[in-house]
From TrEMBL:
ATP binds at G23, V24, A25, G26, S27, G28, K29, T30. The gene is lexA_4. GO terms for molecular function: 3'-5' DNA helicase activity; ATP binding; ATP hydrolysis activity; DNA binding; serine-type endopeptidase activity. Its EC number is 5.6.2.4. It comes from Pelotomaculum schinkii. It holds the Pfam family Peptidase_S24. This is DNA 3'-5' helicase. InterPro entries: DNA_helicase_UvrD-like_C, DNA_helicase_UvrD/REP, HSDR_N, LexA, LexA-like, LexA/Signal_pep-like_sf, P-loop_NTPase, Peptidase_S24_LexA.
Length: 810
């Protein structure tokens, strides 16, 4: 796990009391927390009683930290958990609940107290409601049908350390309303009879719990805070991971065990975009001043997600963009993209849960040739759905297990299954999020309009958390009606399947239909599928609208058929069919369409590819009817004009030129001066290979396959035998005039000067950036404000060549 410059600065900061480290998902917040332990322990534990504490929210995260850091190998940048925990009691990594419970045991001698189960709570609440009713008429909300609602509200009161009815009547209560017993939503209004009744019910309910020697963590937390303890364990340095998830009572507990000294520190690590718990204090936009800490000038930010690919990040951030509540939060960190090439998330919708899980089974079977099963995780909003998925897939002989919170086995050769809440803080190479259904997420039943927005924001954050757990691949799925959150994800960042440009089915207004003059019935159900494919052929594959035909006649002797869509190209002096598309109405099946397509391809001898779909199933085949991953994208060679014109830009102080070649005779070229278009005669030339693509954006696996050749003047080269070309397929150098579709001319060499544009290899992946060496670091700098520089050690970078020229299509 490599540390970058930003992380190292935060790790090595001199302690100065309280500090806030805000960071987006995947920015390395937990990495910073664990490595800062070592720094504080070695440099700022000056007295015998000095200790360091890392507080985690739950056991899963604590165990995951151990799992990750036991695998660390680089002793210069890293420190192992074993080393941390063998420092003679100087370092502790504890969950907040274990801290509270330990403190409680020291101040309470009663060993017969038990934690109330959900059944215990429900039973006692029912009894409390009955006892309150005996005192006189209560508000309608005090009803057995609302028992779970009332239990949660009472636990929230304790979590916020509200002691009196007067406090409760005045406190802002976002996200709490009920319409279970009434036709219209009813908020928990301030200074209301409802709040008065709930508070009285709370006192009865907790008296019953005490009488039965039962407790729960919020009650226990209050006792621990209000009881004196001799010889209480305290810490000179405390780091609170996921501090946005803690309740006010838990945060006050942490303050109680903090030992202020001139060199002590308390570090809050947070990301309010991942605040997913209704009882959390800071995650609901409350200020740190409510805890007695002024964070003015005391906060630092990690805004780059190093965990997920650029494509997954774009999809997750497009969902986050719809959350106005979050964006108005003063502690919200706007994420920045980091160059990491990958696949866009795959989204599919199904008719039933069984159909969805069958697809998940097939997908995992396909992935098992690339990934270990332990690197794959299925997540769901609710535990019952996760359990149903695990049970069904296990019956289908797919090795999978519910991730054990108390004793997780991250390396067992089984697919992990867990909830969105329990995956928080973890990461997997492949994540499959299932049952993203309306009514499941968001679940906003029984909420008023204002409170619905608050809960919807929490639920949106929950999906965002799930999406940002994926390192390499993300699969999203639903059945029946998809969640509204699926529509909130920008369609540009979703795909129908892996290695296919096609985006998932989306609705198109009839007023925006293409080729309407050729369509017999624009209201036909199958027309929605055809219009989707027409749009995709233009938007995702780059074909021109004039290259597309609908209802294309196909003659079979005296019988005439009509192909749904034909893509034509210009070949040997005429337009000919090149791609055939057959569509059916949604979920109608494609067996008949496949037979029809095969028949049409037999009759249309210039057709090389066909696509068959009903919006749910998809098949793409070549001329031999062998299934392939995708259709070819448009290129200019498909159009009549065979003359290709480029502007030549030199990076070696040569004048700009116009470069022309004939696509049918690429070795025949002409050169003209840019300013006058006067021909430049008698140039000595050499064929230069185009070896593949280079990402002006994210690193891409080096591609040595020769895709094309250009005949170039020798004067454009410094070492002709070491010259090659690459096509640009990313946008991170666009402000330097290097755009998608341009060709860079490269001199192969292993060194570069500051400011030169280079082809750099990072772990056998190639990227195009401006090179800058600063002291012991190398910066690979993009020329696009959307991307951040890549900061590396010199031994992490291999220069494959410097850009000496550019060909830009005219």
């Amino acid at each position: 796990m490599q540390l970058n410059l930003e992380q190292k600065k935060l790790i090595l900061m001199e302690p100065s009391g309280h500090i806030l480290i805000k960071g987006v998902a995947g920015s390395g917040k937990t990495t910073v927390a664990v490595h800062r332990i070592s720094h504080l322990m070695k440099r700022y534990c000056l007295e015998k009683d000095d200790k360091v504490l890392l507080v985690t929210f739950n056991k899963t995260l604590r165990n995951y930290i151990k799992y990750l850091y036991n695998k660390v190998e680089n002793p210069e940048d890293q420190i192992s958990i074993g080393e941390l925990l063998s420092t003679e009691g100087k370092v502790d990594i504890k969950t907040i609940d274990s801290i509270v419970y330990s403190y409680y045991r020291k101040c309470c001698s009663d060993t017969n107290i038990k934690f109330a189960s959900n059944n215990d709570k429900f039973s006692l609440m029912s009894k409390a409601i009955y006892l309150l009713a005996e005192k006189g008429p209560a508000t309608k909300i005090i009803n057995h049908k609302n028992a779970n609602f009332l239990i949660d509200e009472i636990e929230w009161i304790d979590a916020c350390l509200i002691e009196t009815l007067e406090e409760y009547q005045q406190v802002d209560r976002t996200g709490r309303a009920t319409n279970v017993m009434q036709k219209t939503p009813q908020k928990l209004l301030k200074n209301s009879e409802i709040r008065s009744s709930i508070f009285e019910l709370k006192e009865i309910y907790q008296e019953l719990m005490t009488k039965d020697k039962l407790t729960e963590f919020r009650m226990l937390n209050k006792i621990a805070l209000t009881s004196p303890v001799k010889d209480a364990e305290t810490y000179t340095h405390i780091i609170i991971d996921e501090s946005q998830d803690l309740t006010k009572a838990q945060l006050e507990m942490v303050k109680r065990i903090y030992k202020p000294k001139p060199y002590s520190s308390i570090t809050f690590i947070a990301d309010n975009a991942q605040s997913i718990y209704t009882h959390s204090w800071l995650g609901k936009g409350r200020s740190y001043t409510t805890l007695g800490y002024d964070m003015s000038g005391k906060s630092r930010t990690l805004s780059k997600n190093y965990r997920t690919t650029t494509q997954i990040s774009e999809a997750a951030y497009s969902l986050q963009e719809k959350d106005e509540t979050l964006k108005n939060d003063t502690d919200f960190v706007k994420p920045l993209l980091v160059d990491r090439k990958g696949h866009y998330p795959i989204y599919r919708n199904f008719a039933t849960l069984k159909e969805e899980l069958d697809h998940i089974k097939v997908t995992i079977h396909e992935l098992s040739s690339e990934y270990k099963l332990s690197e794959i995780c299925i997540i769901a909003k609710e535990r019952r759905i996760a359990q149903e998925a695990q049970h069904y897939l296990a019956q289908q002989k797919l090795p999978c297990e519910i991730l054990d919170r108390d004793n997780p086995n991250f390396e067992s050769d089984m697919v992990k299954v867990c909830t969105m809440h329990s995956i928080k803080g973890l990461e997997f190479k492949v994540v499959l999020i299932i049952c993203i259904n309306e009514g499941v997420i968001p679940f906003t039943g029984g909420m008023s309009e204002d409170d619905d927005k608050v809960l919807e924001s929490d639920e949106r954050k929950l999906l965002y958390v799930g999406m940002t757990r994926a390192n390499d691949l993300l699969y999203l799925s639903s059945h029946q009606k998809p969640s509204r959150f699926i529509q909130e994800i920008d369609t540009a960042y979703l795909r129908f399947r892996r290695n296919t440009c096609l985006k998932p089915l989306y609705p198109i207004s009839i007023t925006d239909y293409l080729k309407k003059d050729k369509i017999l019935d624009v209201y036909a159900k199958e027309e929605t599928i055809r219009q989707w494919i027409l749009r995709e052929l233009i938007d995702s594959y780059g074909y021109k609208e004039e290259m597309l035909e609908v209802e294309y006649p196909v003659m079979d002797f005296s019988r005439k058929g009509f192909a749904d869509i034909i893509v034509k190209i210009y070949f040997q002096g005429k337009w000919v069919p090149y791609i055939l598309v057959e569509t059916k109405k949604y979920r109608a099946g494609i067996v008949d369409a496949e037979k029809q397509a095969a028949s049409y391809m037999r009759l249309l001898d210039t057709v090389r590819y066909c696509l068959i779909t009903d919006g749910h199933s998809l098949k793409i085949m070549d001329r031999d009817l062998d299934e392939i991953e995708d259709l070819p994208r448009f290129n200019n060679l498909m159009l009549p004009d065979t003359l290709q014109r480029y502007c030549y830009k030199s990076y070696r102080n040569q004048p700009d030129m116009i470069y022309e070649r004939d696509s049918e005779e690429p070795g025949v070229i002409s050169l003209k001066r840019w300013d006058s278009e006067l021909a430049i005669p008698d140039v000595e030339v050499m064929d230069i290979p185009v070896l593949g693509d280079v990402i002006a954006g994210s690193p891409l696996k080096v591609n040595e396959e020769i895709k094309d050749r250009f005949t170039l003047p020798l004067t454009w080269m410094s070492q002709p035998k070491n010259t090659f070309m690459l096509e640009v397929v990313g946008d991170s150098m666009k402000d330097a005039g290097i755009d998608v579709g341009d060709y860079v001319i490269v001199n192969k060499q292993s060194t570069a000067d500051n400011g030169q544009i280079v082809i750099a290899l990072l772990d056998d992946e190639a990227t195009l950036k401006r090179y800058m060496q600063m002291g012991d670091s190398v910066l690979l700098i993009p020329e696009n404000s959307r991307y951040e520089p890549i900061n590396l050690n010199p031994d992490q970078v291999q220069i494959n060549g410097i850009v000496i020229g550019l060909l830009k299509k005219l």
